[in-house]
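It would be a great kindness if you could assist me with a short task in structural biology. A protein sequence and the structure tokens that stand for its backbone fold form the material at issue. I should value your view on which stretches of the chain appear to form regular backbone elements. The record follows directly beneath this note.
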Amino acid sequence: MVGAARQAIGEAGGVHLVLYDGVCGVCSRLVQFLLSHDRRAAFDFASLQSPTGQTMVERFGGNPRQFDSFYVIANYRTAHPRPFTQGRAALVVARELGWPWRAFSAAGVLPTVVLDSIYALVARNRYRLFGRSETCVVPGPDVRHRFVE
């Protein structure tokens, strides 16, 4: 499985990898938002349920059977990728998107426990507030290359 994940990673082109819950409505909306606002194509994507998502989560000490977190693996193609989860992952996304979204990265002064508490509040209620899908987002042909696998 690791070999397949590495092969799939080689086909994408972004600098950072966003791992998201493929059946979560808010996560699917986030991916659509990033696809339309990530002008530099800095992000590639993989669902937490995918082989790549499972491999990356396990590699960085997470539970690959838990889908209630959000990860950004910064510089995931290098020898020294850096994982960010929950609130810190959201700040990486805001910073990379540029203005006006970069302004949200000012929240980086908050302790991680505060950021993660805010994230956890949204995560606990995400299915109720934003719905759930039985399938992952199917990317269109114009952005398919940004999805690992």
